[in-house]
Amino acid sequence: MNTRQIILDTETTGLYPNSGDRMVEFAGLEMVNRQLTRNTLHLYIHPDRDIPDEAAAVHGITLADLEEKNAPKFEQVGRQIADFLRGAELIIHNAKFDVGFLDMEFGRMGLPTVEELGCKVTDTLGMAREMFPGQKASLDALCTRFDVDRSKRVFHGALIDCELLGEVYLAMTRGQFDLMADHGGEAGGSYAAAKIQRPAHLKVLGANETELAAHEAYLDTLDKITEGKCVWRTEADA
């Protein structure tokens, strides 16, 4: 898997991109082969309008803050954002909201939409509702479900939300990439490699108690994701 993915989030002045609300923060974290890279784009953006108190209470960003930071307007950074996103798979929680604002802001500049940039959009909100029907699917709820530490999240900032969403997304999709021998691919290859006879000169180091406990905790997480169908434990019990 060589897909370039971007964990993405935005903060805005309100909920309605087609009724005058604007973007005030953008964050994107690049991930390749399920590993975060150093290619990150984080911008505070002057909305060229007021920021209602109810919006500031959510993300903690005020117009005074943006003016003190000398934050650019979207017209100054829109092309940079578009180039950063081009051709990537975008991992977004409640993607309709963020894509709506991006398309609105791009449209004001005559830039291509997210779709026209060749981006695939993966909505983790939809994924969560499908995986856990009838249960809470907010980012906070998913952090709790997957034991992701959100203690540093005081406000709904785009950057911290991206960091949390990255961990949640990896946990949600882990079952697709672990030891699934019957599906082949990377995981199947790893499983098959374990059966190759070990050369006599290689020394075997057994896991200590701490490592074994960590391994069991990891398998517990896989059991949650696969509803008790963790392949490692299935094979061990066979």
TrEMBL record:
CDD domains: DNA_pol_III_epsilon_Ecoli_like (cd06131). GO terms for molecular function: 3'-5' exonuclease activity; DNA binding; DNA-directed DNA polymerase activity; metal ion binding. Keywords: DNA replication, DNA-directed DNA polymerase, Exonuclease, Hydrolase, Magnesium, Manganese, Metal-binding, Nuclease, Nucleotidyltransferase, Transferase. The keyword DNA damage does not apply. It catalyses: DNA(n) + a 2'-deoxyribonucleoside 5'-triphosphate = DNA(n+1) + diphosphate. One of its GO terms (cellular component) is cytosol. It is an enzyme of class 2 (transferase). A divalent metal cation binds at D9, E11, D161. The active site is at H156. It holds the Pfam family RNase_T. Residues 4-178 form the Exonuclease domain. Its cofactor is Mg(2+); Mn(2+). NCBIfam families: dnaq, dnaQ_proteo, PRK05711.1. This is DNA polymerase III subunit epsilon. It comes from Neisseria dentiae. The gene is dnaQ.
